[in-house]
Specification:
This protein is an alpha/beta fold and 175 residues long. The chain has five helices and ten strands; from the N terminus they run βαββββαβαβαββαβ. It starts with 9 loop residues before the first strand and ends with a strand.
Length: 175
Protein backbone atom coordinates (compact mmCIF):
# COMPACT_ATOMS: atom_id res chain seq x y z
CA UNK A 1 0.00 0.00 0.00
CA UNK A 2 1.15 3.53 -0.75
CA UNK A 3 1.72 5.48 2.45
CA UNK A 4 0.94 9.20 2.40
CA UNK A 5 3.74 11.32 3.74
CA UNK A 6 3.26 14.88 5.00
CA UNK A 7 5.56 16.04 2.22
CA UNK A 8 3.02 14.79 -0.32
CA UNK A 9 0.33 17.26 0.72
CA UNK A 10 -0.12 20.11 -1.70
CA UNK A 11 -1.86 23.45 -1.84
CA UNK A 12 -5.29 23.39 -3.46
CA UNK A 13 -4.91 24.09 -7.16
CA UNK A 14 -7.32 27.05 -7.06
CA UNK A 15 -5.20 28.74 -4.38
CA UNK A 16 -1.95 27.94 -6.19
CA UNK A 17 -3.35 29.27 -9.49
CA UNK A 18 -4.44 32.48 -7.78
CA UNK A 19 -0.99 32.98 -6.24
CA UNK A 20 0.71 32.23 -9.56
CA UNK A 21 -1.46 34.72 -11.43
CA UNK A 22 -1.08 37.50 -8.84
CA UNK A 23 2.51 36.99 -7.61
CA UNK A 24 4.04 34.81 -10.33
CA UNK A 25 4.80 33.52 -12.77
CA UNK A 26 6.56 30.76 -10.86
CA UNK A 27 9.20 28.84 -12.77
CA UNK A 28 10.05 26.07 -10.31
CA UNK A 29 8.33 24.28 -7.45
CA UNK A 30 11.02 23.72 -4.83
CA UNK A 31 10.66 20.96 -2.22
CA UNK A 32 8.17 18.97 -4.30
CA UNK A 33 7.60 15.34 -5.23
CA UNK A 34 5.97 13.76 -8.28
CA UNK A 35 2.77 13.58 -6.23
CA UNK A 36 2.54 17.17 -4.99
CA UNK A 37 4.29 19.28 -7.62
CA UNK A 38 2.39 22.30 -8.84
CA UNK A 39 4.62 23.10 -11.82
CA UNK A 40 6.26 21.09 -14.62
CA UNK A 41 9.69 22.02 -13.22
CA UNK A 42 10.31 20.89 -9.67
CA UNK A 43 13.15 20.08 -7.29
CA UNK A 44 12.76 17.06 -5.06
CA UNK A 45 14.29 16.30 -1.67
CA UNK A 46 14.56 12.66 -2.72
CA UNK A 47 15.75 10.76 -5.77
CA UNK A 48 13.00 11.35 -8.29
CA UNK A 49 13.41 10.62 -11.99
CA UNK A 50 10.91 13.36 -12.93
CA UNK A 51 12.57 16.07 -10.83
CA UNK A 52 14.85 18.55 -12.56
CA UNK A 53 17.19 18.43 -9.58
CA UNK A 54 17.59 17.03 -6.10
CA UNK A 55 17.78 19.17 -2.95
CA UNK A 56 16.45 22.68 -3.48
CA UNK A 57 18.92 24.06 -0.96
CA UNK A 58 21.78 23.16 -3.32
CA UNK A 59 20.28 24.82 -6.41
CA UNK A 60 20.89 28.33 -7.77
CA UNK A 61 17.89 30.42 -6.75
CA UNK A 62 18.98 33.72 -8.29
CA UNK A 63 17.16 33.49 -11.64
CA UNK A 64 14.05 31.53 -10.65
CA UNK A 65 10.46 32.43 -9.93
CA UNK A 66 10.36 30.37 -6.75
CA UNK A 67 7.30 28.72 -5.27
CA UNK A 68 8.27 27.24 -1.90
CA UNK A 69 5.93 25.01 0.10
CA UNK A 70 8.66 23.39 2.20
CA UNK A 71 8.89 21.22 5.27
CA UNK A 72 8.58 23.88 7.96
CA UNK A 73 11.73 22.78 9.74
CA UNK A 74 13.70 24.14 6.76
CA UNK A 75 12.32 27.69 6.96
CA UNK A 76 15.39 29.23 8.69
CA UNK A 77 17.69 27.79 6.00
CA UNK A 78 15.29 28.91 3.26
CA UNK A 79 15.25 32.50 4.52
CA UNK A 80 19.06 32.49 4.55
CA UNK A 81 19.17 31.16 0.97
CA UNK A 82 16.76 33.86 -0.21
CA UNK A 83 19.18 36.47 1.10
CA UNK A 84 22.28 34.64 -0.13
CA UNK A 85 20.95 34.45 -3.70
CA UNK A 86 19.44 37.95 -3.52
CA UNK A 87 15.99 36.65 -4.53
CA UNK A 88 13.77 39.61 -5.32
CA UNK A 89 10.47 37.75 -5.59
CA UNK A 90 9.48 34.36 -4.18
CA UNK A 91 6.41 32.91 -2.48
CA UNK A 92 6.77 30.91 0.72
CA UNK A 93 3.91 28.89 2.19
CA UNK A 94 4.37 28.82 5.96
CA UNK A 95 2.39 28.44 9.16
CA UNK A 96 1.45 31.41 11.29
CA UNK A 97 3.70 30.47 14.20
CA UNK A 98 4.75 33.71 15.92
CA UNK A 99 6.69 31.83 18.61
CA UNK A 100 9.17 30.45 16.08
CA UNK A 101 12.49 32.28 15.77
CA UNK A 102 12.12 32.44 11.96
CA UNK A 103 8.68 34.10 12.04
CA UNK A 104 9.78 37.74 12.54
CA UNK A 105 12.51 37.19 9.94
CA UNK A 106 9.88 35.99 7.45
CA UNK A 107 7.64 38.97 8.24
CA UNK A 108 10.65 41.26 7.91
CA UNK A 109 11.23 40.02 4.34
CA UNK A 110 7.54 40.07 3.33
CA UNK A 111 6.14 42.47 0.76
CA UNK A 112 2.66 40.94 0.89
CA UNK A 113 0.91 38.28 2.96
CA UNK A 114 -2.20 36.31 2.13
CA UNK A 115 -3.70 34.36 5.01
CA UNK A 116 -4.94 31.06 3.56
CA UNK A 117 -6.76 29.53 6.54
CA UNK A 118 -6.37 26.23 8.34
CA UNK A 119 -3.78 23.90 6.83
CA UNK A 120 -6.36 21.14 6.26
CA UNK A 121 -8.65 23.57 4.41
CA UNK A 122 -6.05 24.68 1.89
CA UNK A 123 -4.00 21.48 1.43
CA UNK A 124 -4.87 17.97 0.29
CA UNK A 125 -3.15 14.68 -0.37
CA UNK A 126 -3.06 14.00 -4.14
CA UNK A 127 -3.28 10.26 -3.48
CA UNK A 128 -6.62 10.74 -1.68
CA UNK A 129 -8.63 12.21 -4.60
CA UNK A 130 -8.91 15.70 -3.10
CA UNK A 131 -10.39 14.40 0.13
CA UNK A 132 -9.86 16.52 3.18
CA UNK A 133 -7.22 15.00 5.42
CA UNK A 134 -7.83 14.50 9.11
CA UNK A 135 -4.10 13.94 9.69
CA UNK A 136 -3.15 17.61 9.68
CA UNK A 137 -3.08 19.69 12.84
CA UNK A 138 -5.36 22.75 12.91
CA UNK A 139 -2.85 25.55 12.41
CA UNK A 140 -3.19 28.63 10.22
CA UNK A 141 -1.15 28.90 7.04
CA UNK A 142 -0.27 31.92 4.91
CA UNK A 143 1.43 32.72 1.63
CA UNK A 144 4.27 35.19 2.06
CA UNK A 145 5.58 37.11 -0.93
CA UNK A 146 9.17 37.78 0.04
CA UNK A 147 12.20 39.71 -1.16
CA UNK A 148 15.75 39.92 0.16
CA UNK A 149 15.52 43.69 -0.43
CA UNK A 150 12.80 44.22 2.18
CA UNK A 151 13.74 44.94 5.75
CA UNK A 152 10.59 45.85 7.66
CA UNK A 153 11.08 47.67 10.95
CA UNK A 154 10.24 46.11 14.31
CA UNK A 155 7.14 48.30 14.52
CA UNK A 156 6.01 47.15 11.07
CA UNK A 157 6.64 43.48 11.93
CA UNK A 158 4.67 43.86 15.15
CA UNK A 159 1.85 45.59 13.28
CA UNK A 160 1.78 42.83 10.65
CA UNK A 161 1.75 40.08 13.26
CA UNK A 162 -1.15 41.74 15.09
CA UNK A 163 -3.15 42.16 11.89
CA UNK A 164 -2.60 38.54 10.86
CA UNK A 165 -4.03 37.21 14.10
CA UNK A 166 -7.11 39.45 14.40
CA UNK A 167 -9.81 38.40 11.94
CA UNK A 168 -10.09 35.34 9.69
CA UNK A 169 -8.76 35.37 6.16
CA UNK A 170 -7.38 38.62 4.87
CA UNK A 171 -4.96 39.93 2.32
CA UNK A 172 -2.41 42.47 3.41
CA UNK A 173 -0.43 44.71 1.12
CA UNK A 174 2.59 46.22 2.80
CA UNK A 175 3.75 49.76 2.07
Amino acid sequence: RHQILRVEFKLLESIFNHLNSVWGPFTVDAFATQMNRQLPRFWSQHNDDQAEAKDALRQNWSKEGLYLNPPYVLLPRILNRLREFKVKNAVVIAPLWPTQAWFPVLLGMSTEVLQLGLVDECHYAPTMSHQKSTDLAPWQVAAFRVSFQVCNSRDMISELASALFQNGKMEMVLP
